[in-house]
Each structure stands twice: as C-alpha cells, then as structure tokens.
C-alpha cells in the first residue's frame, strides 16, 4: 500500500504562531498515486496550511509528511518545490513576466535548454487551450481571470511534475469559466497521470471533480470518502450540512427540468 | 547691440565648471549607490538595522549641505596625515575627494528609503509564489523582487541625482570646481550675470538628468524597453557632453588660488594674466576657504596665492602681540619656509586689515575718531562683521584693549555689510582697509591708537615645489611692492560696481596698466 502512496500525512499537528491553538490537529491520510483528492472545509479550517506542508512552504509542529515515501523534512525544500506543481490562490503569476516567461519559470530554474523551454511552453498553451501566438508575449494584467488561471495551471505542470497542488484554483471565476476550467483540469489530471490535491470550499465542485473528498473542520478530518459514499452518508451533522445545498440544488434542477419537458 | 561681455566670459568658463560639476556629481552618485544599495538589501531582513540606517541617513540629510561638505575637509586632512605617518603616502584632502564623499552621503537617504520601501511593497502572494515555484532566496530577489521594485528604486535614484547636482554647487569653497564657482564668484564681485548663469546651468543639468532618469523609470514601470534605452542614451549623452569638453581642455601647469572675496579674485586674475603673458599655462581655483588655502599651497595643489600677514600671524603662528610690520613679515617669511617650505616672494605694497568703520555723519555727530572714543557709545550700538571676524583673536584683542562691548553682534556676507550700515541697520562694521566701498559709502575708518589690530600686509606666496622656479619668480616679481592701497581700493571698487565691465579680470587688467604707468612715470 505505501508503494503506491504519493503523499502521506502521519499524525500531523501545526500550531498557529506562538499560540498553543492548533491549526491542524492530528491529521492522517494517504493520497494514492493518480488520485484526485479534494479537501473541503470552511475558511480557517486549515486547508491551505495543510497544502503548504506538502511542498514545505510551511513546517509541521509534530508528525510526518511523506512524498513518495520520503519525509519532506529531510528533503531540500527548493528542489522539492520544483518537482511539485502548485496553483496558487489568486493565481500568483509574476506581473513583470510574460505568459511564456511565467509558464517557463520552473524549467528555467531547472536549467532546461532555451529551445526546449520554448517548445514546452507551446505544448502547455495548447494543453490549457490558449492560442500560442496570441498569448505568449502578453503580460498577466492583459489577461482575463480565467485566462490567468489557465496560465497558472500551465505553469504548475510545466516541468512535468507528478504531483499538483491547487489552492482554491477557481475561486474568483464566473460559473461558466469555472466549470470549463474544472473539467479541463480533470482531463489534464487523467491524461498526464497526475496526483492532484485540490482545495475548495465548494462541496459541489469537489464532488464532481474528485475521486475522493476529505472534509476538514477546525483542523480535524471529519470525513474522508468517495463522492458517492459522501453523497449517501448521513453520519455527521456538518457533512450533512455541506451536502445539503448541492442535494437541494440537484433536486430543484431535476424538478425544473421534468416540469418543463414537453409531454 | 553687443552682448554683455560677462555672458561671453560665463560661456568661456562653462566647459571647466560644468566638467567639474558633472564629474563630482557622477562619482558621488555612483559611490552613494554602491554603498546604499547593498546596505538596503542587507537591511531588508533586519528591521532593526533598517531603522538604524534610515535614521542615520535622515540625520545626514538634515545637516546643511555646506556644513557637511566642510566637515569632510578636516576629517580627510586628519586621515591623510595619519596615512602619511603610517605608510608614507598622503592624499589630497581638498577638492574632489571630500566633495564626492559628502555628496555620496547626501545621496544615500532616497536610495536607501526607496529600495527598502520598494522591496517591502511587493505583495506577499508574489514572493510566496516565487518560493512555491522553487526559487532560492537569491533567485527570488534577482528574478522577482528587484525587477518589481525597480521603478520605485529608480525614483529614489532620480531624487538622489537631483539633490546631488543641486548640492554640488556648494563644493566650490572646499576647492572642487563646479557650477558653484559662478555663484560664489558672482556673489563676491556682485556679478549677477554669473550668479544667474550658475543657477540656470545647475538647474538645467538637474532637469536634463531628471528627465532622462524619468524616462528610464517610466520605461521600467510600463515594461517598455524602448523608453528605458532612450532614457539611458539621453543620460549618457548628458554626462559625456559635460565631461568631454573639460577633459579635452588639458590641465594648466600653474594653478592660482583665491579666497572668497573680490580682492582675491582680482589678484588671482592678475597673477594668472602675468603667468600667461610669460608664456606659462595657468588656471585658477577660486573661492577657497581661508583655512583651506594655505594647506592647498603647502601640498602643491595650488602654486601661488596672495595671503595677508595678520591672518597667518594670528591663525597659524597663534601670536596675539602686534610688533612693527617689518618684524611680522620677517617672522612669517621664516615660519613659512621652516614649517611648510613655502616661499614668500614679497609684499605687494598695501594692507588689507580689519578696520572698524562708521558712517561719517554719525561719527562726526558723536565726535568719534578712534576705537577708544567708540567704547563710550558701544553698549548701545550694533556691529556687523564677516563670518570670520568675531572668532578671530584680534577681535578679542580689540575688545580687551578698549574694553569694548556692543549691544548686538551680527554676522553677514561682506557685500551686504555696506548696504546694511548705509541703511542704518547696524552702527559699526568690521570693514577691510583696502575696500573701495569705504569711500563709496562715505564711511570713516576709526583709528587704533593702541595697535590692537596687527598689520595685514598682502604677501605673495608660492608653493614649496615652485620655490626655486625662475620663470614663475620672474613673471611675478614685478608685482612686489607695486600696488599701494589707493590703487587696490580703486580696483576693488571697479570690480564690484555690478556693471557690465566689472569683472575681476577687467579690474586686474586695469591694475596692471596702472602699475605700468606708475613705473614708467616714476623712472
């Protein structure tokens, strides 16, 4: 079982600053290779803190985080980060670099050949469905929110990482763009054989995109299951609460559609 | 209509003055940047160091520019003496070095402040992204933070450049040629064309540099390479345009020094003209401070200048007695040769002593003829003197000898003392005995029956390395004993009328003609 584990959390605890207050409290789970995991929870539940531990943007107070079996605390954080894709909340593109330069940043840090980076940027623009000629030379401020996020995704997968971490990647987008981009991400995940951990506060998005959903509340894992099982479950009041809205919306939509369908 | 000859003269001096100004500004900015930029980077992660640096730079900024420049002179003098003792090699404490150091210090605050704020102003999300993609702290700084902070840093450099170019005009009194030479010379000789010309030239230079740097800054902000290159090219053109004419001028073989008043400018001009007439190349270094000029001569940075015996007697030999003038001259000549190797060619024939002067009408009404008479009224009167006078030993000697005490003491620029007494703003002034303005303003010089004021004979000094220079000696010897006080007063008056022919050079030319007439007539 550990052989196929891409990421493993073992009794991880984090404290907020000098306070004794815990942001993550005894969190343990394993993400299998090629799995698409969504972590759902309200603001302040510790989602981002958890994700940052994986590529050592943060450090745990106690417990161990493993990437392909290796304790991340024993790895060089800079090298670790270059082999893990990260899509930042609010994009995090470098405003002084063009789209092509932003996408090519990690290959450049890895000292790839310039021609190779160029070719890779073109491939990635195709993958995230942005026109090569039109977008290569643009600066981030010349892009729409959806386009910026596509560039963010392209940058995350530029150096062919096996693991991609996404921190509320579609948070600020309109519903149509959000849906399209979500499905594109899932397609890329499948095509490239990635292991993906995505953070979201939107339960419906998590259920529709992920293979598996972890619900986090006040730093603790309160549910960890497949979307199908979660949709059926009614064991925990908070999970029920989270499931309430998508279920009701689905029912209403179904009712609406059956009523309008001509007989 | 012919143009004012002063404008032609101003343009003739432009290559030299502008070259000096650009050189000192560029070096000061480069040094300021080279020090403050790395400091700002180091201070970035150390809030306490950052506060300390910004506070220190702010303090340096509050010191008036002239004072800051003046402070570096004695400091470097001491360092030079120390290095001479330790490793046998001294360096010039005058001119370029102190100017560059002081101005560099002056330029540090805007660069430090803007680099620190520019780096601190970057969104945390962006530096987090830089870390997240696997940049080392250095890569993050070079690839992300500095490029993003560059427009703000550039704005700081721009401010620093304008400050330095403006303040560089104040490097004239410590011996650095700059556009300030126009201003200081013009102020002394009431040549307002020079003053305006100097101000306009400094302002124009500052504007051009500011505009060029502004182009670079906007280019960086808008990520427009064309603008950045355009600004950089304009900047290079301005700097080279300022430097090249001065460099191609060549250095004169002899440099004549002058202190900061009209008579000195005339005499320096006269010496310059005599050297040129003898086929030697000569240049001038004008507006040197009284304490700076003797050291400049001793170290050979200037080759000749006119000093006054009383000044050396009080300030260098630290004597407070007042023996007959021949005795003073002999003692000074020996002292100069023994301590510095400086040669005294001789005295010019007139004295320029401090003298207390009053309006004739007032003196007659109160029956004041001597300083002793003045003592009865002084407690209700005010006196004005130049920047040195009240700190000089002879002022203490006068006060002691006549038990003199004034109601008020005011320090002012010498040119403004005379209008001040004419306007009855002050009752007595510490005038100069060779000053043409004494007659012009109808003042009387009060007698000094107790000889509290030592003699102030004008003496011609040459640098140690020129002590046995026959060409120099032959060219200047005709001046010894040739100028009496009436001649000097007339020349001084001619040079300070503010009219279009009132330049020091014109007065010097007139003086030489008169010397020739008298010699011809006398023989």
What is the count of β-strands of chain A?
10
Oligomer: heterodimer
Low-confidence stretches of chain B: none
Largest sheet of chain A: 6 strands, mixed
The rounded distance between the terminal residues' Cα atoms of chain A is 53 Å
> How would you spell out the order of helices and strands of chain A?
EEEHEEHEHHHHHEHEHEEHH
Question: What does the overall shape of chain B look like?
Answer: elongated
CATH superfamily of the largest domain in chain B: MetI-like
Q: Give a quick account of the main beta sheet of chain B: strands, pairing sense, barrel closure.
A: 5 strands, mixed
- In DSSP terms, counting alpha (H) and pi (I) runs of 4 or more, how many helices of chain B? 21
Q: How are strands sequenced across the largest beta sheet of chain B? A: 7-6-8-5-9
How big is the Rg of chain B?
Answer: 27 Å
Search tags:
heterodimer; A: alpha/beta; B: about 525 residues; alpha/beta; D-Maltodextrin-Binding Protein, domain 2; 3 domains; five-stranded mixed sheet; three-stranded antiparallel sheet; 21 helices; about 65% helix
Q: Which helices and strands appear, and what pairs or packs with what?
A:
The complex is a heterodimer of chains A (263) and B (523).
Chain A (H helix, E strand, L loop, with lengths): L4 E11 L6 E11 L3 E5 L6 H8 L7 E6 L2 E2 L5 H6 L1 E4 L11 H5 L1 H5 L4 H14 L4 H4 L9 H12 L6 E5 L7 H18 L2 E6 L2 H7 L2 E6 L2 E6 L1 H6 L4 H24 L3
Helix pairs in contact in A: 7-8
Chain B lengths: L4 H39 L3 H16 L2 H23 L8 H25 L3 H9 L4 H31 L12 H9 L3 H31 L2 H25 L4 E4 L4 H16 L4 E4 L4 H9 L5 E5 H7 L9 H16 L2 E9 L2 E6 H7 L4 H4 L7 E4 L7 H10 L5 E4 L2 H9 L5 E5 L4 H4 L2 E3 L11 E6 L7 H7 L8 H11 L8 H19 L1
Parallel strand pairs in B: 1-2, 6-7, 6-8
Antiparallel strand pairs in B: 3-10, 4-10, 5-8, 5-9
Helix pairs in contact in B: 1-2, 1-4, 1-6, 1-8, 1-9, 2-4, 3-4, 4-6, 5-6, 6-8, 7-8, 8-9, 10-21, 20-21
């Amino acid at each position: 079982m550990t052989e196929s584990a891409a990421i493993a959390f073992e009794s991880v605890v984090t404290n907020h600053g000098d306070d004794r207050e815990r942001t993550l409290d005894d969190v343990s789970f394993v993400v299998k290779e090629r799995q698409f995991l969504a972590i759902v929870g309200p603001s302040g539940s510790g989602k981002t803190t958890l994700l940052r531990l994986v590529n050592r943007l943060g450090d745990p107070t106690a417990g161990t985080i493993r990437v392909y079996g290796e304790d991340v605390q024993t790895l060089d954080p800079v090298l670790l980060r270059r082999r893990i894709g990260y899509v930042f909340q609010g994009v995090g593109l470098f405003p002084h670099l063009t789209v092509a330069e932003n996408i090519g940043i990690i290959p450049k840090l890895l000292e790839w050949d310039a021609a190779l980076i160029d070719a890779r940027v073109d491939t990635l623009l195709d993958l995230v469905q942005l026109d090569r000629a039109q977008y290569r030379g643009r600066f981030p401020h010349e892009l729409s929110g959806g386009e910026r996020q596509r560039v963010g995704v392209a940058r995350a997968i530029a150096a062919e990482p096996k693991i991609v971490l996404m921190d509320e990647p579609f948070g600020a987008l309109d519903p149509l763009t959000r849906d399209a981009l979500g499905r594109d991400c899932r397609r890329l995940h499948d095509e490239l054989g990635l292991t993906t951990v995505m953070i979201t506060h939107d339960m419906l998005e998590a259920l529709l995109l992920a293979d598996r959903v972890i619900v986090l509340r006040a730093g603790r894992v309160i549910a960890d299951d497949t979307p199908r099982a979660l949709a059926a479950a009614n064991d925990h009041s908070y999970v029920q609460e989270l499931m309430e809205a998508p279920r009701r919306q689905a029912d209403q939509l179904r009712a609406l559609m059956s009523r309008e369908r001509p007989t | 209509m012919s143009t004012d000859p002063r404008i032609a003269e101003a343009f003739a001096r432009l290559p030299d003055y502008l070259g000096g100004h650009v050189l000192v500004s560029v070096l000061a900015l480069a040094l300021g940047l080279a020090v403050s930029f790395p400091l700002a980077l180091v201070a970035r992660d150390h809030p306490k160091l950052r506060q300390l640096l910004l506070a220190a730079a702010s303090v340096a900024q509050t010191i008036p520019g002239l004072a800051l420049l003046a402070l570096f002179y004695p400091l470097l003098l001491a360092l030079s003496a120390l290095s001479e003792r330790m490793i046998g090699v001294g360096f010039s404490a005058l001119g370029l070095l102190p100017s560059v150091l002081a101005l560099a210090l002056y330029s540090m605050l805007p660069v430090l402040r803007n680099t620190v704020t520019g780096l601190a102003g970057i969104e945390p999300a962006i530096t987090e992204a830089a870390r997240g993609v696997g940049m080392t702290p250095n890569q993050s700084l070079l690839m992300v933070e500095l490029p993003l902070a560059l427009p703000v840093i550039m704005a700081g450099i721009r401010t620093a450049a304008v400050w330095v170019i403006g303040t560089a005009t104040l490097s004239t009194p410590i011996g650095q040629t700059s556009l300030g030479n126009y201003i200081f010379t013009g102020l002394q000789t009431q040549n307002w064309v020079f003053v305006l010309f100097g101000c306009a030239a400094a302002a124009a230079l500052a504007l051009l540099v500011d505009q060029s740097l502004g182009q670079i800054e906007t280019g960086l902000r808008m990520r427009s390479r064309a603008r950045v290159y355009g600004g950089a090219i304009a900047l290079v053109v301005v700097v080279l345009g300022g430097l090249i004419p001065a460099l191609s001028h060549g250095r004169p073989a002899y440099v004549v020094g002058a202190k900061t008043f009209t008579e000195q400018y005339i005499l320096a001009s006269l010496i310059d003209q005599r050297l040129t007439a003898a086929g030697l190349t000569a240049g001038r270094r004008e507006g040197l401070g009284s304490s700076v000029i003797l050291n400049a001569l001793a170290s050979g940075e200037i080759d000749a200048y006119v000093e006054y015996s009383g000044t050396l007697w009080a300030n260098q030999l630290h004597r407070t007695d007042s023996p007959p003038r021949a005795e003073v001259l002999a003692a000074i000549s020996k002292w100069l040769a023994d301590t510095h190797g400086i040669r005294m060619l001789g005295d010019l024939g007139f004295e320029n002593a401090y003298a207390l002067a009053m309006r004739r009408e007032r003196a007659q009404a109160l029956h004041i003829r001597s300083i002793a008479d003045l003592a009865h009224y002084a407690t209700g009167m005010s006196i004005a003197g130049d920047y040195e006078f009240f700190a000089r030993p002879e002022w203490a000697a006068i006060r002691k000898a006549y038990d003199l005490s004034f109601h008020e003491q005011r320090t002012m620029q010498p040119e403004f003392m005379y209008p001040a007494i004419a306007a009855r703003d002050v009752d007595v002034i510490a005038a100069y005995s060779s000053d043409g303005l004494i007659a012009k303003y109808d003042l009387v010089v009060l007698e000094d029956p107790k000889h509290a004021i030592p003699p102030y004979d004008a003496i011609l000094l040459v640098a140690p390395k020129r002590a046995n220079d026959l060409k120099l000696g032959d060219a200047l010897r005709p001046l010894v004993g040739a100028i009496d006080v009436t001649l000097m007063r007339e020349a001084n008056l001619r040079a300070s009328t503010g009219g279009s022919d009132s330049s020091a050079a014109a007065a010097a030319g007139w003086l030489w003609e008169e010397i020739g007439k008298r010699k011809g007539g006398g023989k």
